[in-house]
Amino acid sequence: MSIDPSHILLTGRVAVVTGGGAGIGRGVAAGLAAFGASVVIWEQNPESCASAAEQIGALGIATDVRDGAQVDAALARTTAELGMPTILVNNAGGVFSSPILETSENGWDALYRANLRHVFLCSQRVARGMVAAGLGGSIVNVASIEGVRAAPGFAAYAAAKAGVINYTKTAALELAPHRIRVNALAPDVAMTEGIRRLLPPGSETRMGLTAPIGRPGHVDEMAAATVFLASDMAGYITGQTLHVDGGTSAAAGWYHHPESGDYVLGPTG
C-alpha cells in the first residue's frame, strides 16, 4: 500500500471527544473536525460543552463520563443522531495536590474516577458498539508524562495516568482481533486556558526551559498527534504511548539553564 495524502483524512467517521469543552479536548475536537470527522463532545460542564460544540460545529452532549449510565445515554444519542463512533478520544481528567501522607480515601477515589475509571467505561461501551456493528476503529487515551515518572505531591494522579498507559496496552491486545486500535498520548505542559490562569506573569518562558524544544506545548500539537493516531496513516500502530512533550521524557532531568541556555542536569545555584 503506497502512502496517499487522503489517508490522513477522517471524512465520514464519527469521533467522540470526552472533556472536549476546553483545553486539550477542545483543541483535539477542532482538529478532528478540520480533518473531516463528525465530532461529538461529551463534556460534564453544560456551558463549555455547548460553547465548544457551537464554535467547532460539533454535537455537544453534557455528560459525566465517570457515570456508566450517562455514558450509555450519550452513546445512544450519538449513534441515533450521527451513527456509531469509530474514533474515541478519552481526554477527560482532572488533578489536584495529593501528597501521600495527607490524601484522604475520598481524594484518592476522586482522582481515580476522574482520570482512569472513565477511560474503561467509555472505551468498553464504544468498543462494544463497534464490534456489534462490525466496524474497526481507533481509541486514543490522553495520559500524561506523570504516568511514567515520579510526581511528588501528586501520587494519585500519577498512579491513575500510569494505569491509563498500561490499560492502553492491554486494551490494544484484546481489541486487535476486532480491528480496533488503542493508543495513548502523554503530554507534558500544554498551554491551555487553565494553565495560563495559574501561571505567574513571565513564567511561561521559564517553564519552556524544561523541554529540549525550549517552549511549552500547544493544544494544536496534541490535536495533530491525535488526528494521526485516528487516521489510516497509523493503521499498524497500536498499544503505544506517544510522548508529545517536546523531548521532556527523553531529557530525564537535563534542562536548559535559564541564563546560559546550555544543558545542565539537576538544579543550579
Explain this structure to me?
The strands form 2 sheets. The protein has a 7-stranded parallel sheet with strand order 3-2-1-4-5-6-7, sandwiched between helices. By secondary structure, it is an alpha/beta fold. The protein has 9 helices and 9 strands. The mean pLDDT is 92. The radius of gyration is 19 Å and the shape is globular. It has helices at residues 23-34, 46-56, 68-81, 105-133, 155-175, 193-198, 203-208, 219-230, 248-251, and strands spanning 14-18, 38-43, 59-62, 87-90, 137-142, 180-185, 241-242, 254-256, 263-265. The chain is 43% helix and 14% strand. α3 packs parallel to α4 (105-133) and α4 packs parallel to α5 (155-175). The relative contact order is 0.14.
List the keywords.
about 270 residues, alpha/beta, 7-stranded parallel beta sheet
Portion in helices: 40-55%
Overall mean pLDDT score? 92
Instruction: Describe the global form.
Output: globular
Order of helices and strands: EHEHEHEHEHEHHHEHEE
**How much β-strand is present in the residues?**
5-15%
Give the beta-strand count: 9
How far is the N terminus from the C terminus? 55 Å
- Structural class per helix/strand content? alpha/beta
Radius of gyration over C-alpha positions, nearest whole angstrom? 19 Å
| Count, helices | 9
Given as residue ranges, the uncertain stretches (5+ residues, pLDDT < 50) are none
